[in-house]
Amino acid sequence: YLSTPMGWGKPGTGSAQSWWFWPGIALMLFTAFAELMVNWRSLAGAVRDSVKSIVLNARRAVGKRKEETGGEGEKREVEDLDPVKEEDQVPTSWWGGGLCVSAVFSCFVMSYFFTVPIYQSLLSIIFAFFLSLVGIQAAAETDINPISTLGKVVQIAFAKFPAASLMDLQRNNVLSAAMTSASASQAVDMVGDLKTGHLINASPKSQFLAQLVGSAFAIPISVVLFLVFAKAYPCIVVVSDTCEFG
After folding, report:
1. Nearest to 193 by CA among 180, 208, 178, 173
2. What CA–CA distance (Å, rounded) separates 156 from 183?
3. Residue 89: C-alpha distances to residues 4, 47, 200, 205 (Å)
4. Per residue in 74-125, pLDDT tens?
């Protein structure tokens, strides 16, 4: 409030909020990256375990599980640390195919409806993979999923990407961060469900099918409810001087 009397700004434009906004953003970003650096061991371990799991599933899918030679020349299979029986595990083709379909669909929606370049959507998916591991590890150790922190990391990474206007840059930035945050949120929820199923000796394959059926109904219902809500309150999707929410 002293910006105008001190001659730092034009009359009517200076406020405590405007002066402290960017320092606050800087602190939030430093906090996000500091959290990532502090938890680098957790991130590295999560990536290492994920790569091992992907390699093991790939070998199993093609029927070429690698055999290692022991000290005396005997052969033994690569150790499988998954306690679930192989017939109850989610097949690689299921989650792999679902990943490909969802990635293509996400790129299409982001490009067609929001004019986000496809390469930015693909980069968001790559960021989502690694940062989801951070979210899962953090949630496992602290019971807190740092969704907002992960979103800020993506926002700063996408800050300098080219765009036709400032508004396009802001939209692409926010949507890319939203994709990563949503992925981290869903990944943590999925792992939490699988953990509960593991404790009660449920089949991961059955859980996967149940979630697939639930998603098939939940996604269209959510879209319809949003359209109804947007029609009732247009100010949530269209810039307006008046809005029921203030």
Report:
1. 208
2. 18
3. 65, 20, 15, 6
4. 444 444 566 778 788 888 788 888 889 999 999 999 999 889 999 999 999 9
Q: How many CB atoms lie within 10 A of CB 50?
A: 15
CA pair distance 171, 110, nearest whole angstrom: 11
Contact (CB, 8 A) for 107 and 93? no
Residue 155: name the closest of 15, 19, 1, 26 by CA: 26
Reported pTM: 0.69
- Name the DSSP class of 70: -
Cα 26 to Cα 19: distance, rounded to the nearest angstrom:
13
Rounded CA-CA distance 195/143 in Å is: 13
DSSP class of 79: P
